[in-house]
TrEMBL record:
Residue ranges of every copy of the N-acetyltransferase domain listed in the record: 23-183
Organism lineage string: Bacteria, Pseudomonadati, Pseudomonadota, Betaproteobacteria, Neisseriales
Full protein name: RimJ/RimL family protein N-acetyltransferase
Record keywords: Transferase
InterPro entries attached to this UniProt entry: Acyl_CoA_acyltransferase, GNAT_dom, N-acetyltransferase
SUPFAM superfamilies: Acyl-CoA N-acyltransferases (Nat)
PROSITE patterns: GNAT
Organism, as annotated: Aquitalea magnusonii
PANTHER family per the UniProt record, alphabetical: ACETYLTRANSFERASE (PTHR43792:SF13), GNAT FAMILY, PUTATIVE (AFU_ORTHOLOGUE AFUA_3G00765)-RELATED-RELATED (PTHR43792)
GO terms for MF: acyltransferase activity, transferring groups other than amino-acyl groups
Length: 190
């Protein structure tokens, strides 16, 4: 592989959103957690290995489309102590055909169970969305959320996302497709 692109962190009040390099993703997928932690600059829990499927998908995207790298998977690290609390990513570069005109980019995120309901997902979504607006002029954002995932549905509603349609994802089953224009309208704090 050619020289590795250095992608700057995205910072929010409590989080560092750090890009996961191909080398870090490979080390994680091969269960070399100590090496992956050195690449990341933060310790990784054994539960990190459960994210291998999304890591493989994002790694393949970066290898096939190098311009996707800054939009790929980022670790959510607590600024105060470097603790990994989850991850966030854009599913593609802006304007990808798979979005079928629903919006400019789609975001996905996972917060580790011990850190849920503490506002980290909301903070990471806002920081990534702000970065996308500044970087590429993104105006409309998409989230795909299981109808049964009530906390994520509530979070999306609190940011002003509204229901567009339901799709049947071959891997995840039914998902509500929600959209919101920037700037998001905070309706209440989740």
């Amino acid at each position: 592989m050619s020289t590795t692109l250095t992608v700057p962190d995205i910072l929010s009040p409590r989080l560092i959103l750090r890009h996961l390099t191909p080398a870090m993703l490979r080390a994680s997928m091969e269960a070399r957690l100590a090496e992956a932690a050195r690449w990341l600059g933060a310790p990784l829990p054994i539960s990190w290995l459960e994210e291998a499927a999304v890591m493989a998908l994002r790694l393949e995207q970066m290898e096939n489309e190098p311009e996707y790298a800054p939009w790929s998977m980022r670790a959510m690290l607590r600024r105060e102590d470097g603790q990994l609390v989850g991850h966030i990513n854009f599913h593609t570069c802006p304007g990808h055909a798979y979005l079928q005109g629903r919006g400019d980019v789609e975001l996905g995120y996972t917060v580790l169970p011990a850190f849920r309901r503490q506002g980290y997902a909301s903070e990471a979504l806002l920081a990534c969305a702000g970065w996308a607006v500044e970087t590429a002029g993104v105006k409309r954002f998409v989230l795909s959320i299981s109808p049964d995932n009530l906390p994520s549905q509530a979070l999306a509603a609190s940011l002003g996302f509204h229901w567009l349609e339901q799709v049947d994802d071959p891997e995840d089953g039914p998902e509500d497709v929600l959209v919101a224009d920037w700037p998001f309208t905070r309706q209440h704090h989740v």
